[in-house]
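Colleagues,

For the teaching module next term, I've prepared a clean inverse folding example: a structure given as tokens, and then the sequence designed for it. I'd like students to try predicting residues themselves before seeing the answer, so please don't circulate the second half yet.
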């Protein structure tokens, strides 16, 4: 990292009432220590004066300044972030920092409120295929929204336009991998703010001896406020002397207040409404127990949860999504299945009755936050990701993959140029690199065209191990299909170990090199399983086994064949593609 590296942040900043705006404001000092920072915002004049005086602010329209080495777009599922989303859709390509793993709520609200129904329908059909199109038609027919807003995230258009992604937990990284397998992705935990002095409880009108349980941030249905109310009502019945604080704006359209009244908890529950960051942090340092819940989960990370950990508060979470990634020493996890309210009430009762347990959990939380959630660590991760992308091609992986697919299709469609290309590429693989007897280049390509037709184009950084390929085939795999290829002419005999690390390859292609004996073939497939990453692809050709026999061998090796319609001219050898689904039995 170097202070001369210029990072542009396309973001919202206070007074915008969003979590990302508050977070970026708090992270700016550490980011400015790691690189030169310019903030690109909708209206620089509207930014809080203290921030505008200390950091460079420019309008979003100037984000194309060539002095900026890379842009980082802060993306969240909130109407206050619409201008940043629009800027990211327009470009230039950069690094997406995604705070929410779905944008469907924001985009649906925006487009349907303006009666732009065609754009909404086309967006879902483009990003989610027939399922998206069916959902759009249901919504336009009057069906109210539900859990599908989380399942159909509408991220595809945005991901296709950019160079890489930063997310804040492993769960979110896995979601990105499902949508954009070729996208470089970094996991950089959100930093937690330094704790501030506690606020006086008298200002809240609470008795001095009250045990204060709190939920922080926007009160939305996915944050399970009604589950927390049920558990708190149970806690009051068991222990008494407790108070529940919803510290944040109520986004349940009045249902939260109705639920509080229906449970007779008006005197034991406070809903504060929107709080500025300073007020929120002071309350976090004041309360006795913090509860953080969320379901459905699309990879969000709660900034207020991080602040609670840094403040040494005992935190209770459900074991789901990125919440389940938090170490058991730092939070108290409760199950997300079965009697959820009862399990949550049990956890709260245990902490309510044992001040020592609260103190120990809080101290462990503080230690974890100091080690894992420091602002310097966050800033270093963001700048390192930006630098890595700045050194590479400024072409989004989705565009590179589309071009690669087109090249593959052209290669398969044009036999004469295909064979000429294969012969020329054979020079890339010399006898010294891959010794052993081989067919001629033309024969090798013709023999394996049915398998090549089923092999997907390789995305950036895609790794392929080829067992038993002629030089022309290796050259085609590398230069046309776009894989980073490791070639081995003869696998170890009798299914011996392959000289590669576990999960070293995205694809293994085995060209007529499977041992003809079932036991040895099974051992070799087990080794292929070992060097494949989870979900990795095996492309296999053999004249010694039928496809039904191969299916049985693959099942024992922890892989499942991928269904495929047979060509009219069935090849003389079996051609099977399979996915790694688990470990060998």
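(Answer key — instructors only)
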């Amino acid at each position: 990292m170097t202070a001369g590296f210029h990072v542009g942040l396309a973001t919202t900043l206070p007074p915008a009432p969003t979590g990302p705006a508050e977070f970026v404001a708090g992270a700016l000092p550490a980011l400015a220590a790691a690189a030169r920072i310019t903030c690109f915002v909708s209206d620089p004049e509207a930014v809080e004066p203290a921030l505008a005086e200390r950091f460079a602010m420019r309008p979003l329209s100037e984000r194309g300044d060539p002095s900026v080495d890379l842009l980082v777009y802060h993306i969240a599922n909130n109407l206050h972030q619409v201008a940043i989303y629009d800027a990211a859709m327009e470009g230039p390509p950069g690094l997406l920092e995604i705070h929410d793993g779905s944008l469907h709520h924001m985009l649906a609200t925006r487009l349907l409120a303006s009666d732009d129904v065609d754009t909404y329908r086309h967006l879902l059909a483009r990003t989610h295929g027939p399922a998206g199109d069916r959902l759009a038609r249901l919504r336009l027919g009057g069906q109210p929204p539900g859990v599908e807003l989380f399942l159909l995230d509408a991220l595809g258009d945005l991901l296709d336009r950019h160079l890489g992604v930063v997310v804040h937990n492993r769960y979110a990284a896995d979601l990105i991998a499902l949508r954009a397998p070729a996208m470089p992705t970094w996991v950089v935990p959100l930093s937690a703010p330094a704790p501030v002095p506690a606020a006086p409880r008298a200002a809240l009108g609470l008795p001095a001896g009250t045990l204060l349980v709190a939920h922080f941030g926007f009160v939305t249905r996915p944050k399970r406020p009604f589950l927390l109310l049920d558990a708190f009502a149970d806690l009051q019945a068991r222990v008494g002397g407790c108070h529940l604080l919803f510290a944040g704006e109520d986004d349940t359209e009045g249902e939260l207040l109705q639920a509080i009244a229906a449970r007779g908890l008006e005197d034991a529950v406070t809903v504060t409404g929107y709080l500025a960051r300073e007020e929120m942090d002071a309350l976090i340092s004041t309360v006795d127990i913090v509860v953080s819940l969320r379901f459905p989960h699309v990879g969000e990370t709660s900034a207020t949860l991080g602040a609670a950990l840094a403040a040494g508060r005992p935190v209770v979470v459900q074991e789901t999504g990125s919440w389940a990634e938090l170490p058991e020493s730092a939070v108290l996890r409760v199950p997300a299945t079965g009697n959820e309210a009862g399990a949550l009430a049990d956890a709260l009762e245990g902490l309510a009755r044992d001040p020592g347990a609260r103190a120990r959990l809080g101290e462990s939380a503080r230690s974890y936050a100091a080690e894992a959630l420091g602002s310097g660590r966050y800033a270093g991760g963001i700048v390192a990701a930006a630098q890595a992308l700045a050194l590479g091609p400024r072409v989004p992986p989705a565009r590179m993959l589309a071009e690669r697919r087109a090249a593959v299709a052209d290669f398969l469609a044009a036999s004469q140029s295909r064979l000429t290309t294969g012969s020329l590429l054979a020079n890339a693989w010399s006898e010294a690199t891959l010794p052993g007897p081989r067919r001629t280049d033309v024969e090798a390509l013709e023999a394996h065209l049915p398998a090549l037709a089923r092999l997907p184009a390789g995305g950036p950084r895609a790794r392929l191990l080829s067992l038993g390929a002629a030089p022309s085939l290796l050259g085609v795999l590398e230069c046309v299909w776009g894989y980073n290829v490791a070639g081995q002419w003869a696998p170890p005999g009798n299914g011996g170990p392959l000289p590669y690390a576990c999960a070293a390859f995205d694809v293994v292609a085995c060209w007529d090199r499977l041992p003809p004996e079932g036991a040895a073939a099974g051992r070799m497939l087990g080794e292929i399983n070992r060097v494949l990453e989870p979900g990795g692809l095996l492309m296999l050709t053999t004249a010694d086994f039928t496809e039904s026999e191969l299916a049985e061998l693959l099942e024992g090796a922890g892989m499942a064949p991928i269904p495929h319609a047979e060509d009219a001219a069935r090849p003389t050898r079996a051609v099977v593609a399979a996915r790694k689904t688990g470990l060998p039995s």
